[in-house]
């Protein structure tokens, strides 16, 4: 069994599977992918976590924390771009791991990504609920605490968080073209709001607020980077759209890299201005640091505009995160590692509707009943582990298939992948110990599911046992065992 769990699937097999049931609609180009990336990246990190990181970890050196996190993500993004152009399949890091490292590591990455996206969606929905309630209070409307806060925080259920998850799910089920259109509008609004903050705040920067610049030392800077890492993970969602891209070999790398560059510039500008406007310790008292900073210097109308922009920003993050999560479940199901039920494509909308509904139920429960700090930390550690495995996979596949055509090549291999691994490992180490323990428990649960279900039901296992015809193995469909013949898929060691 030890050898079999590292069996791989060829790139050609993955690509052939995308044609099952007619495939999904190919409607996205570079612009749409870049907007998806920005839509997912600019949100909770800039509107919520900047204050938390500045007050408790980085101080004014928050700008360095963002740069460190950007370097880690930049190295990982170059690795992602090489794979995305070479393997234009919806599973993102899961698919890349399957091709280069084998089924076991693919499962680990997929299980990590399930953790990442599920808890990210929940965390963003909780943040959305907070801004929504704040806007209502400014309008003189106060919802009962029992219906707007999780039990951990003194309420019964966070109902607004559940409702926004349901709305976003319905939009995603209707189709990627509709999701992309809605996302583009929202992204334009929130970029305008971020630009407004930069313009208004730049003239109110007081250099005295940057002293001491690094009050918590380098340890605090790296801890801050591990916390605000949440702000950058959205570029991963771009690669999950691979099967709905017109020209994936060119558009995917461009979308991943452009979205990350644009958002990094915005984060550095906002964090520098934010900590220059308000003493970093003042952010301990607010969950809306950007709006708080504008109120502090007298721009109350600007603070109101920021709140509206935050709602838009968080909505677009939910939209793209839900989109990405459903595509990962869809591909894992199509490969047989999860029940076949979730690999179904809706006959009318050409989207993985069942996967979307499952995600809706799980994330709504999580957002409705758990506090934001727990879900945010678990999101970060799952993402960091996935990035490490993808970086390693680039090096492995360069050795295993050096002549494979690569429309985009990660530069300076193995240096860039090694830097990605080192940066991500440091950030994992800087996360709270309890988060690391929870993650280990999550991995143990995942291993139980893999060895109890996934290993036996994967397409490769069924093909080797004679349960699939050659055609069915390529399409990921099950046939009668009596008419099947033994198949040995390419690279299935």
Describe the structure.
The chain has helices spanning 11-17, 30-41, 44-58, 62-86, 93-100, 103-138, 159-174, 176-202, 217-228, 235-239, 248-277, 289-296, 300-334, 353-369, 372-400, 415-430, 433-457, 459-464, 470-475. The protein is mainly alpha-helical. The chain has a single domain, classed as Amino acid/polyamine transporter I, CATH 1.20.1740. The protein is globular, with a radius of gyration of 22 Å.
Question: For the residues shown, what is the average pLDDT?
Answer: 83
Order of helices and strands: HHHHHHHHHHHHHHHHHHH
Beta-strand content bin: under 5%
Q: Please mark out the parts with pLDDT under 50 across 5 or more consecutive residues, or reply none.
A: 473-493
Shape descriptor reads globular
| Terminal residue distance | 11 Å
Summarize the structure.
It is a multi-pass membrane protein. It holds the Pfam family AA_permease_2. With 493 residues, this protein is an all-alpha fold.
């Amino acid at each position: 069994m030890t050898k079999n769990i590292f069996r791989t699937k060829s790139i050609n097999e993955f690509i052939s599977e995308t044609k099952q049931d007619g495939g999904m609609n190919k409607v996205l180009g570079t612009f749409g992918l870049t907007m998806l990336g920005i839509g997912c990246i600019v949100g909770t990190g800039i509107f919520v976590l900047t204050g938390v990181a500045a007050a408790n970890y980085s101080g004014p050196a928050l700008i360095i924390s963002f740069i460190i996190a950007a370097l880690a993500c930049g190295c990982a993004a170059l690795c992602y771009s090489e794979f995305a152009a070479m393997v234009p399949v919806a599973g993102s890091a899961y698919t890349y791991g399957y091709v280069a490292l084998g089924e076991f590591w693919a499962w680990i990455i997929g299980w990590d990504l399930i953790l990442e996206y599920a808890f990210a969606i929940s965390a963003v929905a909780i943040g959305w609920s907070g801004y929504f309630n704040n806007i209502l209070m400014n309008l003189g409307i106060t919802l009962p605490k029992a219906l707007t806060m999780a039990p951990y925080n003194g309420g019964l259920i966070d109902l607004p968080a559940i409702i926004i998850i349901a709305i976003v799910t319905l939009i995603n089920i209707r189709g990627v073209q509709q999701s992309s259109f809605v996302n583009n509008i929202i992204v334009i609004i929130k970029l305008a709001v971020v630009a407004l903050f930069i313009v208004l705040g730049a003239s109110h920067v007081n250099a005295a607020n940057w002293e001491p610049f690094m009050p918590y030392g380098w340890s605090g800077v790296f801890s801050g980077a591990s916390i605000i890492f949440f702000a950058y993970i959205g570029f991963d969602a771009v690669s999950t759209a691979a099967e709905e891209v017109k020209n994936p070999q060119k558009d995917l790398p461009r979308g991943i890299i452009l979205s990350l560059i644009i958002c990094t510039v915005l984060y550095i500008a906002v964090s520098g201005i934010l900590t220059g406007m308000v003493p970093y310790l003042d952010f301990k008292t607010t969950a809306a640091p950007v709006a708080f900073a504008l109120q502090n210097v007298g721009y109350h109308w600007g603070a109101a505009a920021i709140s509206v922009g935050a709602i838009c920003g968080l909505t677009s993050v939910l939209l793209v995160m839900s989109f990405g999560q459903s595509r990962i479940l869809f591909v894992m199901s199509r490969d047989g590692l999860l029940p076949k039920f979730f690999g179904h494509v809706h006959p009318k909308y050409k989207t993985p509707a069942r996967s979307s509904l499952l995600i809706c139920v799980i994330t709504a429960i999580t957002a409705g009943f758990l506090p934001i700090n727990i879900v945010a930390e678990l999101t970060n550690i799952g993402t960091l582990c996935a990035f490490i495995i993808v970086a390693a996979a680039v090096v492995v596949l360069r050795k295993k298939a050096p002549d494979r055509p690569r429309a985009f090549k990660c530069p300076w291999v193995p240096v860039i992948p090694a830097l990605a691994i080192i940066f991500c490992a440091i950030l994992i180490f800087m996360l709270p110990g309890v988060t690391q323990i929870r993650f280990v428990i999550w991995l143990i649960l995942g291993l139980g599911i893999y060895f109890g279900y996934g290993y036996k039901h994967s397409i490769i296992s069924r093909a080797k046992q004679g349960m699939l015809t050659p055609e069915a193995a390529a399409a990921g469909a099950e046939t009668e065992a009596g008419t099947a013949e033994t198949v040995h898929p390419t690279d299935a060691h």
